[in-house]
Write a structure and sequence with these properties.
The protein is mostly beta strands. About 15% of the residues lie in helices and about 45% in strands. It is built from two helices and nine strands; from the N terminus they run βαββββαββββ. A six-stranded mixed β-sheet has the order 4-5-2-3-9-8. The chain has a three-stranded mixed β-sheet with strand order 1-6-7. It starts with 5 loop residues before the first strand and ends in a 10-residue tail after the last strand.
Length: about 120
Amino acid sequence: MTEHVITISEAAAFQIKDMMKENGEEGSYLRVAVKGGGCSGLSYGMGFEQEVNEDDQYDEQHGIKILIKTEDAPILKGVKIDFKQSLMGGGFTIDNPNAIASCGCGSSFRTAAVAGTPEEC
């Protein structure tokens, strides 16, 4: 890919690498996905995988190999993933410019093009 579908901050990359090491997943790919469900109809998914599928788009940022299904790319275009640390702990934040509505939990959203089916939080 010449243009990044998503952008991962250095803080998020550091945390992802740390999680890969803790889980014995060094060398794995980070899968960033969209799935149906959540309060607003769609939710994000992130996990580690060993193999690339035919319908995957590949990217690499900060030494993290990233996979995104081609069908998810339009929904994720412009997404920024960061990691914020606070006194209450830390967590990943996802800023999606395509989201027209999101839930208070921050992991569920809706876009103008894809609504999904809302579930209760």
